[in-house]
Amino acid sequence: MLTGAAWLYAGLAIVVALFQAALALGAPWGHLAMGGLHPGRFPPALRIAAFLQGALILFLAVVVLGRAGLVEPRPPNWLFTVAIAVTGVTTVLNLITRSIPERRLWGPVTLVMFVCVLRVAAG
Predict the structure, then answer these.
(1) How many domains does the chain have?
(2) DSSP string for 43-95
(3) Alpha-carbon distance 83 to 37, whole Å?
(4) Which residue of 57, 59, 73, 95 sits 20 to 30 Å from the alpha carbon of 12, by its own alpha carbon?
(5) Sorting pLDDT into bands at 50, 70 and 90, what band is 2?
(6) Structural domain of 49
(7) How far is residue 43's CA from residue 30's CA, in Å, rounded to a whole number?
(8) DSSP state letter for 35
Protein backbone atom coordinates (compact mmCIF):
# COMPACT_ATOMS: atom_id res chain seq x y z
CA MET A 1 0.00 0.00 0.00
CA LEU A 2 2.92 2.32 0.72
CA THR A 3 4.35 1.92 -2.77
CA GLY A 4 0.90 2.28 -4.31
CA ALA A 5 0.42 5.59 -2.52
CA ALA A 6 3.81 6.82 -3.69
CA TRP A 7 3.14 5.81 -7.30
CA LEU A 8 -0.32 7.39 -7.22
CA TYR A 9 1.20 10.62 -5.91
CA ALA A 10 3.80 10.53 -8.69
CA GLY A 11 1.19 9.79 -11.37
CA LEU A 12 -1.00 12.67 -10.28
CA ALA A 13 2.07 14.91 -10.07
CA ILE A 14 2.79 14.12 -13.72
CA VAL A 15 -0.76 15.11 -14.64
CA VAL A 16 -0.40 18.38 -12.72
CA ALA A 17 3.01 19.05 -14.27
CA LEU A 18 1.66 18.44 -17.78
CA PHE A 19 -1.19 20.86 -17.07
CA GLN A 20 1.30 23.46 -15.82
CA ALA A 21 3.48 22.91 -18.90
CA ALA A 22 0.45 23.46 -21.13
CA LEU A 23 -0.28 26.72 -19.30
CA ALA A 24 3.36 27.76 -19.71
CA LEU A 25 3.10 27.07 -23.45
CA GLY A 26 -0.03 29.19 -23.77
CA ALA A 27 -2.99 26.88 -23.27
CA PRO A 28 -6.11 28.98 -22.57
CA TRP A 29 -6.89 27.31 -19.24
CA GLY A 30 -6.20 30.19 -16.88
CA HIS A 31 -9.64 29.81 -15.32
CA LEU A 32 -8.43 26.48 -13.87
CA ALA A 33 -5.32 27.81 -12.12
CA MET A 34 -4.09 30.48 -9.73
CA GLY A 35 -7.54 31.32 -8.48
CA GLY A 36 -8.94 31.76 -11.98
CA LEU A 37 -7.86 35.40 -11.94
CA HIS A 38 -6.43 35.23 -15.47
CA PRO A 39 -8.90 33.36 -17.69
CA GLY A 40 -7.55 32.36 -21.05
CA ARG A 41 -3.82 32.42 -21.71
CA PHE A 42 -1.53 33.44 -18.90
CA PRO A 43 0.63 36.55 -19.28
CA PRO A 44 4.39 35.87 -19.60
CA ALA A 45 5.18 36.15 -15.88
CA LEU A 46 2.50 33.61 -14.98
CA ARG A 47 3.68 31.29 -17.75
CA ILE A 48 7.09 31.24 -16.08
CA ALA A 49 5.41 30.61 -12.72
CA ALA A 50 3.43 27.73 -14.24
CA PHE A 51 6.62 26.18 -15.59
CA LEU A 52 8.31 26.49 -12.18
CA GLN A 53 5.28 25.00 -10.41
CA GLY A 54 5.33 22.05 -12.78
CA ALA A 55 9.02 21.49 -12.14
CA LEU A 56 8.49 21.73 -8.37
CA ILE A 57 5.70 19.16 -8.37
CA LEU A 58 7.84 16.71 -10.36
CA PHE A 59 10.68 17.23 -7.89
CA LEU A 60 8.31 16.57 -4.99
CA ALA A 61 7.16 13.37 -6.70
CA VAL A 62 10.76 12.14 -6.81
CA VAL A 63 11.11 13.01 -3.12
CA VAL A 64 7.97 11.02 -2.27
CA LEU A 65 9.12 8.07 -4.38
CA GLY A 66 12.49 8.24 -2.64
CA ARG A 67 10.90 8.25 0.80
CA ALA A 68 8.97 5.12 -0.19
CA GLY A 69 12.26 3.48 -1.21
CA LEU A 70 11.40 3.42 -4.90
CA VAL A 71 14.22 5.66 -6.16
CA GLU A 72 17.77 6.14 -5.02
CA PRO A 73 19.32 7.99 -3.39
CA ARG A 74 16.73 8.54 -0.70
CA PRO A 75 16.16 12.24 -0.08
CA PRO A 76 16.89 13.78 3.31
CA ASN A 77 13.99 13.84 5.76
CA TRP A 78 13.67 17.62 5.60
CA LEU A 79 12.86 17.43 1.89
CA PHE A 80 10.08 14.98 2.59
CA THR A 81 8.76 17.37 5.23
CA VAL A 82 8.74 20.08 2.55
CA ALA A 83 6.79 17.73 0.25
CA ILE A 84 4.17 17.19 2.95
CA ALA A 85 3.91 20.92 3.67
CA VAL A 86 3.70 22.02 0.03
CA THR A 87 1.14 19.34 -0.78
CA GLY A 88 -0.91 20.30 2.27
CA VAL A 89 -0.87 24.02 1.49
CA THR A 90 -1.68 23.35 -2.15
CA THR A 91 -4.62 21.18 -1.11
CA VAL A 92 -6.05 23.85 1.18
CA LEU A 93 -5.64 26.56 -1.46
CA ASN A 94 -7.33 24.43 -4.10
CA LEU A 95 -10.21 23.63 -1.77
CA ILE A 96 -10.85 27.26 -0.79
CA THR A 97 -10.25 29.03 -4.09
CA ARG A 98 -13.02 31.30 -5.36
CA SER A 99 -12.69 29.66 -8.77
CA ILE A 100 -15.35 26.97 -8.79
CA PRO A 101 -13.88 25.13 -11.83
CA GLU A 102 -10.43 25.12 -10.22
CA ARG A 103 -11.86 23.91 -6.90
CA ARG A 104 -13.81 21.12 -8.59
CA LEU A 105 -10.87 19.94 -10.68
CA TRP A 106 -7.80 20.41 -8.51
CA GLY A 107 -9.39 20.17 -5.06
CA PRO A 108 -9.97 16.40 -5.31
CA VAL A 109 -6.67 15.80 -7.13
CA THR A 110 -4.57 17.57 -4.51
CA LEU A 111 -6.60 16.01 -1.68
CA VAL A 112 -5.77 12.54 -3.01
CA MET A 113 -2.12 13.59 -3.32
CA PHE A 114 -2.15 14.81 0.29
CA VAL A 115 -3.63 11.54 1.53
CA CYS A 116 -0.95 9.68 -0.46
CA VAL A 117 1.92 11.69 0.98
CA LEU A 118 0.54 11.18 4.50
CA ARG A 119 0.35 7.43 3.80
CA VAL A 120 3.98 7.42 2.72
CA ALA A 121 4.85 9.41 5.86
CA ALA A 122 3.13 6.81 8.04
CA GLY A 123 5.36 4.14 6.55
Answers:
(1) 1
(2) PHHHHHHHHHHHHHHHHHHHHHHHHTTSSSSPPPHHHHHHHHHHHHHHHHHHH
(3) 26
(4) 73
(5) confident
(6) 2-122
(7) 10
(8) G
